Amino acid sequence: MNKSSFFIVGKHPVIEALKNPKRKVLRVFLTEESKKKIHRNNPNHNLLNNIKVYFKTKREMDKYCKNENILHQGFVAEIEHLENFELKEYIKNNKNLVFACLDEVSDPRNIGSIIRSAASFKIDGLIVKERHFPEESKLMYKAASGCVEHINIFKVSNINTALKFLRDKNFWTYGFDAKSDNDFAQVKWEGNIVLLFGSEGYGMKKNTIKYTDYLVKIKINKDIESLNISNSAAIAFHHIKNFKKQL
Fold first, then answer.
1. CA distance linking residue 190 with residue 140, whole number of Å
2. Torsions phi, psi of 119, nearest 5?
3. Does residue 106 surpass a pLDDT of 90?
4. How do residues 38-94 score in pLDDT, each as one tens digit?
5. Are 112 and 234 in contact, with CB atoms under 8 Å apart?
6. Is 23 helix (H, G, I), strand (E, B) or coil?
7. Within the chain, which residue ranges are assigned CATH 3.30.1330.30?
8. pTM of the full predicted structure?
């Protein structure tokens, strides 16, 4: 294993990494059964061409995820990082964008689930703080179910600086806050948009809220305190993308 590589596990993370021409896959570890699944599910593409493939027993592969309490499903791969996307460059050539921004969201499973929803509903990109983003987490890759390969992830050194920059470039930032009185479903989602989500425990930081233009919430049963952040994000992504299609 070299310094720029790391391991991912699971059927969908590994197969989608193999499909991605921008992803460097160094080695793949498979069981005999998982190799059959690759060929059966991708009959028109030999995804293992020019890839170092090693066949292992299930027990031999368990060591790659025994500490994370996740299942490898007979698929393990050593991969390199994707090239970083530059936020400033991306917005130059694109309009009517929807970004999701995570303000110190820390649970790899939640981040993976948000990535999966963002890719599913064609959100244009995810903005994360570089220092807090678990970019080598097997848990995140497994929860994302291969969708890390299908979403632009913009890693920034400072969330507030990124929000200020986007505001100057005619983006509107909407912070999701359970204490808000504004129903997000009543908003006219027009123009360039940033959807800001705070941490799982204490929400958005006060010094980040000042960079938001509006605070909104998803209305739910009053007897329930809040939604899981990944569920909130999925609801917001689905609604906003459908709204924009109708414009």
1. 31
2. -70, -40
3. no
4. 877 777 668 888 899 999 999 999 998 888 889 999 999 999 999 888 999 999 988
5. no
6. coil
7. 5-80
8. 0.93
- Is 7's pLDDT higher than 90? yes
Residue written as tokens 């991969």? Answer: 79
Output the CATH code of domain 87-245: 3.40.1280.10
Fold of the 5-80 domain: 60s Ribosomal Protein L30; Chain: A; (3.30.1330)
> What distance, in Å, lies between the first and last C-alpha atoms of the chain?
49
Three-state SS for 234? helix
Name the one residue in this structure whose structure tokens are 């995140």: 140
Query: Which residue, chain included where needed, has tokens 């170092």?
Result: 52
Q: Which residues contact 51 (CB under 8 A, 6 or more apart)?
A: 18, 25, 27, 28
Distance CA 215, CA 223 (A): 21
Residue-level pLDDT at 244: 86
Beta strands in 3-61 (DSSP E): 5-9, 25-30, 52-55
In percent, how much of the chain has pLDDT > 70? 98
Reported as a single tens digit per residue, the pLDDT across 112-171 is 999 999 999 999 999 999 998 999 999 999 999 999 999 999 999 999 999 999 999 999
Tokens of 87: 């936020």
**β-strands 98-102, 153-156 pairing:** unpaired
Positions of CATH 3.40.1280.10 in the chain: 87-245
Query: What's residue 129's pLDDT?
Result: 94
| Measured distance CA(82)–CA(194) in Å, rounded | 23
- CA 182 – CA 121 distance, rounded (Å): 23
The order of strands in the sheet holding 171-176 is 153-156, 125-129, 98-102, 192-197, 171-176, 214-216
